[in-house]
Design brief:
Distance between the termini: 23 Å
Structural class: mainly beta
Helix content: under 10%
Strand content: over 45%
Order of helices and strands: EHEEEEEEEHEEEEEEEEEEE
Number of strands: 19
Largest sheet: 17 strands, mixed
Mean pLDDT: 80
């Protein structure tokens, strides 16, 4: 059993589209209707927000124990402004952790909404010096210990066209170097444990009818994207990544004894395909309970459901289950199944910003399991 602290923000992951006129007024009326319906669902008997205005600041210590970073502690600080009255709450944040294995990870990121949500910008920078440990790297039976140096940055911009559609572009730069540890030098090249230096650009289309981007209770989200990594952009390899992410949220009439708010069910179908990618650019299982990067293949697909049962205005229960597969050809998907189940409790830290903290236990196949304290829903 391992313990993780996961700091995440919705970027994909995680929009709007080309159906209807591009007028701001048209979108405003649609958004208001959606928020009114959602408000009725959430406040049949109580509201999720307090009467007093919330502070725009969030500061919290962090602690975790995991197989990649050992025991580590740190902090997260975030500023949550509204760039205009009709847009979702933005986030500007920084986080850092340091572990007893001398691993250091830091990040700064922003998730911005403005002009009545007509424009969205997500950007981040990550720095890491990480000592990794894999009990069974890529199913080879090899116990891999590595020292990884990660320097990465990404920016994604989307503009609304029509009612619920966005079109946008993205740029990703990563310099990820893996230095084999003791006993790994002779076999690291054979299993592709080499890291890579890459720069990629891409386009994306999003559809987003959710009432809230961080804590939705209804609506649909769709993302189709590509990233073209090219040597001409300064990378070591030329390859392509395609992604498809579809989510749907709805409420059912299941209530706890202490809450009149309805239960939310979220469903996600997520896919990633690589074309001519080196091993470091392969797809990984990303379901809860699995260490990202421990299982790789050219392509990945998973289906996951997340149930969110409110206890009162702030607290709730969560439970989820899913199954993923890795494959080179689509016909091979059924040969590498990775199931996952889990559950725990949630706490609505910032109701107006939709920021949720979740403490969960997750179990995958074999000895894959974890305990997470994460900020934000998994999708």
């Amino acid at each position: 059993m391992v313990v993780f602290l996961v700091l995440g923000w919705v970027v994909v992951n995680p929009a709007d589209a080309l159906a209807q006129p591009t007028s701001t007024a048209g979108h405003a009326s649609t958004a208001e209707a959606s928020k009114k319906i959602a408000g009725n669902l959430m406040t049949e008997n109580e509201s999720t927000s307090d009467t007093a205005p919330e502070s725009a600041w969030l500061l919290t210590p962090t602690f975790s124990v995991d197989p990649k970073l050992g025991t580590n502690g740190g902090a997260l600080v975030a500023y949550l402004p509204k760039l205009d009255p009709d847009s979702n709450q933005s986030m500007i944040a920084a986080a850092a952790t340091y572990s007893n294995t001398d691993s250091l990870v830091g990040a700064i990121f922003a998730d911005l909404y403005w002009d009545n949500d007509k424009h969205k910008l997500t950007a981040g920078l990550i720095y890491g010096d990480i000592k990794n440990s894999y009990d069974d790297f890529l199913g080879t039976g090899v116990t891999a210990k590595t020292q990884d140096q990660l320097r990465a940055g990404a920016i994604r911009y989307r503009r609304r066209f029509g009612k619920d559609w966005y079109l946008g572009a993205q740029l990703i730069r990563s310099n990820y170097t893996i230095e084999p540890g003791m006993g790994m030098d002779d076999i690291s090249e054979g299993i592709g444990l080499i890291g890579f230096d890459s720069t990629g650009i891409g386009a994306l289309a999003e559809f987003d009818s959710r009432n809230d981007p961080r804590n939705p209770i209804q609506g649909t989200y769709f993302l189709a994207e590509n990233i073209a990594y090219r040597e001409a952009l300064g990378g070591e390899d030329s390859f392509d990544i395609l992604g498809l992410d579809i989510r749907h949220y709805f409420t059912v009439g299941i209530r706890s004894s202490n809450s009149q708010a309805k239960t939310v069910i979220a469903v996600q179908w997520k896919n990633r395909w690589s074309i001519d990618a080196p091993l470091a650019g392969y797809s990984s299982i990303v379901l809860p309970g699995y260490t990202r990067g421990n299982y790789l293949n050219e392509n990945m697909s998973h289906l996951m459901a997340d149930v969110r049962l409110p206890i009162n205005k702030r607290w709730g229960f969560v439970a989820y289950g899913g199954v993923g597969c890795l494959f080179a050809e689509s016909s091979q998907c059924g040969k590498e199944f990775y199931p996952a189940i889990g559950g725990g409790v949630s706490y609505l830290v910032k109701p107006e910003a939709g920021i949720v903290a979740r403490l969960e236990v997750a179990k995958g196949k074999d000895d894959n399991s974890a305990i997470y304290l994460r900020f934000g829903h998994p999708f």
